[in-house]
């Protein structure tokens, strides 16, 4: 089977809940970013939320993106690591339900605890994540499916992996396999905190260049050490052949290797920004894999993101994903 996208990332079960602004003060949480926590800390936080009003789904940044590719009608593959526990079984079944292939088998999963991410959304539609990586922190080069990468159009690397030495090794190994086999390499910077604390690791992974880079405006300025989106876009040309800078309510900026293209936002009432960037990447990757220009893929990605932030959770229903295609891609 030929895959549109081969993703590699942290396998996390997302626990999405709504909290008030005072929750962050009471529990000493930095709002608006992803923070890695240990098992004890996350157990404390989960005990502080209302689980009856929370929703669980198979997640992680790259996981959300490859699921989006599949929902739009593409073919995707995901390499990750979960444990032989209830959350691990839940994750694998959710991947299967969403049509994503994987080399992970439930009976072969190691003992331990699967990763989970507490996603806290606030009335201002911001999202804050506290992540316990669990066994996903042990993701390593041996968990890569080399044949699947060689049989894919795009490799998609999740930036969160730079927090782990083995995860970084897995990224570098996957990138080398892709480059030697004609599979294009895409990378998402994932989160401002990742760029802040692991900038040199990103530079190592990027190497001479990547084919496609995804980032938001803050990440773009941090990775390029600039103070404006315009300056960041100029410097990103030295890191990536093509790139996407998402601009929140202002749409996005896409560079197709020749032209900078402004992608207009779609008006929407924002409820939850969780997964917006993941959805943008999934829709965009689907588009450019299926004969659409960077401009058209960007418009579809902008529309898909506007619809995902208008609801709870990081995904669209399959019928809503198909509606995005019919509305914009024909």
List keywords for this structure.
alpha/beta, UDP-N-acetylmuramoyl-L-alanine:D-glutamate ligase, nine-stranded mixed beta sheet, five-stranded mixed beta sheet, 14 strands, 40% helix, globular
Task: Walk me through the topology.
Elements: E1 3-8, E2 12-18, H1 21-26, E3 34-36, H2 39-48, E4 55-59, H3 61-71, E5 76-79, H4 86-97, E6 101-102, E7 115-121, E8 127-132, H5 146-150, E9 152-158, H6 165-181, E10 184-188, H7 192-206, E11 210-216, H8 217-224, H9 229-236, E12 240-246, E13 252-255, E14 260-263, H10 276-289, H11 294-308, H12 318-329
Helix pairs in contact: 3-10, 7-8, 8-9, 10-11, 11-12
CATH top level class name:
Alpha Beta
Low-confidence stretches: none
Number of separate helices: 12
Anisotropy-based shape:
globular
Percent helix, as a range, is 40-55%
One letter per element, helices H and strands E, the order comes to EEHEHEHEHEEEHEHEHEHHEEEHHH
The CATH architecture name reads 3-Layer(aba) Sandwich
- Considering the protein shown, what is the CATH homologous superfamily? Ribokinase
The biggest beta sheet, please?
9 strands, mixed
Structural class: alpha/beta
Strand order, largest beta sheet = 6-5-1-9-10-11-12-13-14
Content of β-strand: 15-25%
Annotation, overall tally of beta strands: 14
- Distance between the amino and carboxyl termini: 25 Å
Mean pLDDT: 93
Tally of individual domains: 1
Per CATH, what is the topology?
UDP-N-acetylmuramoyl-L-alanine:D-glutamate ligase
């Amino acid at each position: 089977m030929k895959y549109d996208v081969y993703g590699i990332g942290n396998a996390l079960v997302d626990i999405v809940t709504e909290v008030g602004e005072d929750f962050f003060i009471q529990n000493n949480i930095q709002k608006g970013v992803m923070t890695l926590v240990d098992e004890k800390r996350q157990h404390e936080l989960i005990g502080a939320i209302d689980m009856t009003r929370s929703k669980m789904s198979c997640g992680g940044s790259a996981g959300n993106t490859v699921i989006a590719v599949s929902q739009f009608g593409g073919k995707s593959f995901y390499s990750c690591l979960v444990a032989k526990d209830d959350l691990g079984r839940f994750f694998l079944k959710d991947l299967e339900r969403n049509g994503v292939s994987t080399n992970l088998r439930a009976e072969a999963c190691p003992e331990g605890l699967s990763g989970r991410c507490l996603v806290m959304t606030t009335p201002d539609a911001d999202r804050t994540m506290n992540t316990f990586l669990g066994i996903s922190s042990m993701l390593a080069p041996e968990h890569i499916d080399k044949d699947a990468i060689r049989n894919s159009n795009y490799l998609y690397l999740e930036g969160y992996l730079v927090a782990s030495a083995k995860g970084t090794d897995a990224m570098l190994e996957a990138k080398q396999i892709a480059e030697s086999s004609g599979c294009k390499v895409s990378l998402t910077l994932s989160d401002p905190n990742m760029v802040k604390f692991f900038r040199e690791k990103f530079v190592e992974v990027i190497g001479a260049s990547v084919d496609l880079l995804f980032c938001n405006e803050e990440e773009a300025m941090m990775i390029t050490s600039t103070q404006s989106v315009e300056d960041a876009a100029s410097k990103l040309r030295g890191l990536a052949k093509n790139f996407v800078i998402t601009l929140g309510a202002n749409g996005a900026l896409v560079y197709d290797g020749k032209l900078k293209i402004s992608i207009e936002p779609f008006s929407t009432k924002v409820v939850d920004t969780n997964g917006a960037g993941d959805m943008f990447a999934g829709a965009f990757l689907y588009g450019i894999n299926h004969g659409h220009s960077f401009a058209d893929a960007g418009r579809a990605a902008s529309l898909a993101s506007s619809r995902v932030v208008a609801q709870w959770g990081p995904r669209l229903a399959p019928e809503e994903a198909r509606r995005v295609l019919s509305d914009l891609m024909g």
